[in-house]
Design goal:
- The protein is of the alpha+beta class.
- The protein folds into two domains: 30 residues, no CATH class; 121 residues, no CATH class.
- It contains five helices and eight strands; from the N terminus they run ααβββββααββαβ.
- A hairpin with a 2-residue loop joins strand 3 and strand 4.
- Helix 1 crosses helix 2 and helix 3 crosses helix 4.
- The longest helix has 22 residues.
- It starts with a helix and ends with a strand.
Length: 167
């Protein structure tokens, strides 16, 4: 009697064999799938009070600009060049109206409804301003093309291969 005849004569055996093969296949896929770690939640980011010359880590819930030791602090995006040099590539702050909306969204008053999600998104995009250290003026985040040019990495050596640095 062949295996085929045994399975044809007893459907339960065929079902068990098929289920066993499916289980082995699923186990093989699971064991060989690449492992992905959970995203890291950073509770700090970099800020500067001197246009990016120096920077410090503080709570990521701070919405720039905010007062730090009597000076206005803005977000500093720090990168590391191929030669190991760390530098501030660009700065970020929010317009006063946008900052107010974002603060309300971050810490709603008990018993009151927070701002609408659409309003928060608009504040985060259109209310954001970016600039490079040393630039005289800020670029509005609503001007997507101009803001993207400011946010494009430019290392001190002229390359664009900087790696983000986290606190």
């Amino acid at each position: 009697m062949s295996v085929r005849d045994a399975i044809s004569g007893n459907p339960g055996v065929g079902t068990a064999v098929a289920a066993g093969l499916a289980l082995i296949g699923a186990l093989a896929v699971f064991l060989h799938a690449p492992r992905r770690s959970a995203p890291v939640h950073h509770d700090q980011c970099f800020f500067t009070t001197d246009d990016g010359k120096t920077w410090f880590a503080d709570r990521s819930t701070n919405i720039p600009p905010f007062d730090k030791d009597g000076k206005q602090a803005v977000r500093a995006y720090v990168f590391r060049a191929a030669d190991g040099t760390e530098f501030v590539d660009y700065l970020e702050r929010f317009k006063p109206e946008a900052r107010q909306v974002l603060e309300q969204a971050n810490s709603p008053t008990p018993g009151q409804k927070g701002p609408d999600e659409t309003v928060v998104r608009a504040a985060f995009t259109d209310g954001r301003q970016v600039k490079r250290p040393g630039d005289a003026s800020w670029t509005d985040g609503g001007d997507m093309q101009a803001a993207a040019q400011v946010r494009a990495v430019k290392c001190p050596d002229g390359s664009s291969t900087g790696t983000p640095v986290e606190p």
